[in-house]
Amino acid sequence: MRISLIHVQCLEGNNIVPPLGLMYVASALEENGHHVQMFDVDPSVVDVSEKIEKFRPHLIGFSFLSMTHKKAMDYCGALKARFPGTLFCAGGYHATIFPEETARQMELDFAVIGEGEETLVEACRAVEEKGDLSGVAGVVYRDDQGQYRRTPQRPLQKNLDLFPFPARRLLPFDRYLTPPGLIRGYATERLTTMVTSRGCPYSCIYCGSWQIFGRKVRRRSVENVISEIRSTVVQFGIKGLYFCDDIFVTDKDWVIGLSRRMREEGFRIEWACQTRVDTVSDEVLSEMKKAGCVQIDFGVESGSDRILKVLRKGVLSAQVEEAFRLVHKNGIRACATFMLGNPEETKEDMEQTLRLAKKIKPDYAIFYYTTPYPRTVL
After folding, report:
1. Closest Cα partner for 225 from 202, 248, 246?
2. CATH architecture of the domain covering 2-150
3. Which of 184, 272, 285, 333 could lock 363 by a disulfide, CB 3.0 to 4.6 Å apart?
4. Residue 18 above 50 pLDDT?
């Protein structure tokens, strides 16, 4: 099949990071013999319908977040009018938490729930063979009577090494190689993102990533990650990496093993990651530093222990202080993000947050307004 995949951007213009999730799906499709084209656009600014028309796809798929749902719905309607004989599907965070609603609102042939690599491959196979999606786990599909039906949930793939590397070459990748703000002051050119794990065992009330990736952390093998790093260096001349796992340091031995292998390979790469304050130690940080780690981002959220408890962070402000002390001691930049306007938060709580921010001396700090996302506790 010929398949056009569209990632709907959150911001006008170029995103600063590539859509890794859809790139993984594209790779899985190509590995199974399909021909794929991909777009990463704001459809209210860039119309790609002429390029799609030249490609003549059998299936057009959308990936989007809740904040871009309206843009995706409008553009899907325009494309459906232009390509009446083409199948349409959607996936991603919004389609996962609202699959039936998304399918009906966008008049889709089917919606993918959760991780899409295996599901979309099986759905395409079913379409090619008989057009019956009832046996494909993890979809909401439209039956012959026009009714939407949901199939059983698909188990998460435990072995992430089975997935091919993201299809970075399907997009004009140079546009992503100078992303501002990921590693501040370092590796300002030839920087890309990578993910080494999926899933998060914690229960912060504002986060919904577990709805796609689950509560249990699944990690790629060290050698699989090393192989992807090597391929990005060779193919794109990468000089910087940002590991965008929800929590990079969940397995101390794994992180130490990866750090040592990166040194053995001689990668001249500056890299950064994000993790929790209760996961770092002198031993781990020392190995990360020697492997080229220059920055760690922490979601601190609040300086009030009372609010941290409300948010179900599972940490105390004293642990924040210790983590920043250790990171700075090891010569790594420590950056912090904070949330203001949390449930039950008072002026005193916010003042505690400001005091903590000054005390830990982050190399960079960002303050966000707390935003509730669909189907989270918040």
Report:
1. 248
2. 3-Layer(aba) Sandwich (3.40)
3. 333
4. yes
Determine contact, residues 279/245, Cβ cutoff 8 Å: no
What own/partner pairs with CB < 8 Å and gap ≥ 24 does 47-51 have? 48/6, 49/78, 49/79, 49/82
Domain with CATH 3.20.20.70 in the chain: 177-369
Give the tens place of pLDDT for each residue, 30-54.
Answer: 999 999 999 998 887 888 999 999 9
Question: Does the 177-369 domain belong in CATH 1.20.58.220?
Answer: no
Distance between CA atoms of 193 and 179, rounded to whole angstroms?
A: 10
Q: Which neighbouring-strand residues pair with 339?
A: 368
- Tell me the C-alpha distance between 185 and 187, whole Å: 7
90: amino acid identity, one letter: A
Residue positions counted in the chain: 378
Q: How confident is the model over 63-77, as pLDDT tens digits?
A: 999 999 999 999 999
Residues forming beta bridges with residue 197, ordered by sequence position: 219
How far apart (Å, rounded) are the C-alpha atoms in residues 375 and 378? 8
Phi then psi for residue 34, to 5 deg, are -90, 155
Decide if 293 contacts 261 (C-beta within 8 A).
Answer: no
What's residue 272's pLDDT?
A: 96
Q: What is the pLDDT of residues 267-286, one digit of tens each?
A: 989 999 999 999 999 999 99
Question: What's the predicted TM-score (pTM) here?
Answer: 0.94
DSSP state at residue 261: H
Q: Rounded distance, CA 242 to CA 320, Å? A: 22
